[in-house]
Structures are given as structure tokens and as C-alpha cells.
Amino acid sequence: MNEMITASEFADRSPVMKALRLLAHVAASQEAPALAELSRAINLPKPTTHRLARALEAAGYIAKDPLTLRYQIGYSFEDIALKGLRNSAVHGYRRRIMSELAERLEARVNLVVLKSGNLSFVQWVDSTAPLRINISGDMPMPVHCSASGKLLLAFGPKELRDAVMCRAPFERYTKNTITTASRFSRHLDEILKLGYSVDDQELILGVNCLAVPIQLSTGQTVAGLAVMAPTATLPLDKLKQHLPEIKAAARLISDELGRSRPTARGGGAPAGPKKSKSASTASVRKRTPK
Q1: H/E element holding 129?
Q2: Where are the beta strands (DSSP E) in 116-192?
Q3: Given its phi and psi angles, is residue 206 left (phi above 0), alpha (psi -120 to 50 degrees) or beta?
Q4: Which of 31, 49, 205, 278 is buried most, with the most CB atoms less than 10 Å from its CB?
Q5: In 3-state terms, what secondary structure has residue 97?
Q6: Separation between Cα atoms, residue 213 and residue 201, nearest integer Å
């Protein structure tokens, strides 16, 4: 007897699809869910949900807090998510937006996410100006004194902010670095009100940065778009004047991420970003015009 199975019925029956539904719910949850909450949310019996959660936990895709027994995204899924952003169908469209912004402002433009509490570059476009910032894509960027790090902490979950506060007093990189937990907490509250974050030579003397959020249609902040430039060519007060342009670029990227579709705005996608040469420190480098 032949039995026709619809796509929705297949999704309901497939163990793979059930596991993906569980994973998607954990990823989308603002607060880490417990097993009972997961079971209700994905409409599966508690024993089935527990079995799927154990398998995903063993593979590192989710992690269970040993004290609260609540689930959150694991390191393996974070790696996949970061690679997915870097190699997504909208990579070329995103780079085009960032390149146009970098050219207009003569500054470096970064797309950054938080991964395991640390900053990771998803994509970047170097400035074409003679005096520019030179940072390798794999350079560790502290969250407490970088515009993107502070932005993502301010817009992120309370648990993440609390975890970072436990590291205080923070390492001082320049005289402008905020080192105390109390002052840093007030600073994050101010960022949340303003809707953007700045690095006023807090990480590197002579370098400032402004970051705005990349958000899904739900309002969840998933990344930061940051413009970084030497203070000699683009001081902070002048950089802030470009805030509307930077926000407009962030909205375009946010909209495209929300659609999750290949580019449909005409033209072929440009090649991916070229990685900077590896360096242990960041520098402001003057390029000799050809």
C-alpha cells in the first residue's frame, strides 16, 4: 500500500527535523530553556525531547548548565553559525554595502559577532585611505574596550553581561579604558539608550570606532557593524556625524539577513574579503600611493 507523505508530515516524523526544531528553539530563546519548556515548545514528549537533547549535547551543539539544567547553544553550533554567516548566499551583497561605506568614509568597516564571549570578525573591508587601520582577522579583540564588544554586551542577554562583569577589574589598554564593573555597567546602559557604541581610543591610542547593531525582525541583535578609523583623519566627533549612513547600512544588512535569501538586487556578487596579513598587534599604517 502506497502512502503519500506531505512535506509537513515528513518534518513531523523525521528525527533529524525534530532535532533541528529543538536546536532552533534553543538558539532563538532569549532565556535558556529547561527540558519541560523545550518539550512544550517543540510539541514532543518529554522522553523524546530528552533523548534528542542528549544527542545534541554530546555533539557539542547545545550545552546544559549543570546547576540550572537549562540548555543553551554549544561551541559546535557557534562554529557552524559563524561559518554560515561568512559563507552565506548574501555574503557578496553584504560586502558591497560595507565596501561602499568604507569608500565614502575612508575607514575600515567590520562585521563582528560574539562567539563564546569573545569577538570574532565575520567580514571586513579595509580602508583605501593612505592612513588606515591594519588589524588581522584573527586578532583577539577584548569586549570591554571595543565598540562592537560593548555594543553586543549592551544589547545581549543579561547572563552574558553578568559573566563579563565577573572578570572585573578589566585590563587597561589606554588611559581611556574602563576598568571597573560599576562604571562599565553604567556605560552599557547608556549604549542601550543611545542605540550605538563608541571606542574613544580605549583599545588603541590614535584609533576610534563606532558600532551599530545588526538586528533580526524580532529585534534580537545578532552582530555589530563597526567603522574604525585613525583619529588623525576621522576624529570621533566627525565620525559621529556619519551615524545616519552607518545605521542605514546596518538596516540593509539586517533586512537581508531577515529574508535569508540569495541576493536579488542585480549584478554578480563581488569576491569575498581579503584577509589581512597575520599580526600580533593592531597598527595604524600609512600606505604609499602608487
Answers
A1: none
A2: 118-125, 131-134
A3: left
A4: 49
A5: helix
A6: 20
- What domains, with CATH codes, occur in the chain? 9-73 (1.10.10.10), 78-286 (3.30.450.40)
Amino acid at the residue 192? L
Q: Which residues contact 226 (CB under 8 A, 6 or more apart)?
A: 109, 110, 111, 112, 147, 148, 151, 209, 210, 211, 212
Exposed, middle or buried: residue 102 (CB in 10 Å: 0-12, 13-18, 19+)? buried
Is residue 123 exposed (0-12), middle (13-18) or buried (19+ Cβ within 10 Å)?
buried
Cα–Cα distance measured from residue 113 to residue 82, given in angstroms and rounded to the nearest whole number? 8
Amino acid at 105: L
Asked whether the CA dihedral 257, 259, 265, 269 is positive or negative, the reply is positive
Count of alpha carbons within 13 angstroms of residue 193, beta-carbon side = 6
What is the spatial distance between Cα 123 and Cα 272, in angstroms, rounded to a whole number? 9
How far, in Å, CA of 260 to CA of 46, rounded? Answer: 32
What would the grid cell of residue 114 be? Answer: 560574539
Instruction: Quickly count: other Cβ atoms within 10 Å of residue 277's Cβ.
Output: 8
pLDDT tens, N- to C-terminus, the chain (290 residues): 455 667 667 667 899 999 999 999 998 887 899 999 999 999 999 999 999 999 999 999 999 999 899 999 998 888 887 777 777 777 889 999 999 999 999 999 999 998 877 899 999 999 989 998 888 777 878 999 999 999 999 999 888 899 999 999 999 999 999 999 999 999 999 999 999 999 999 999 999 999 999 998 888 899 999 999 999 999 999 999 999 999 999 999 999 877 654 333 333 333 333 333 333 335 455 444 44
pTM over cut 0.85: no
Give residue 106's identity as a one-letter amino acid code: E
Residue type, 15: P
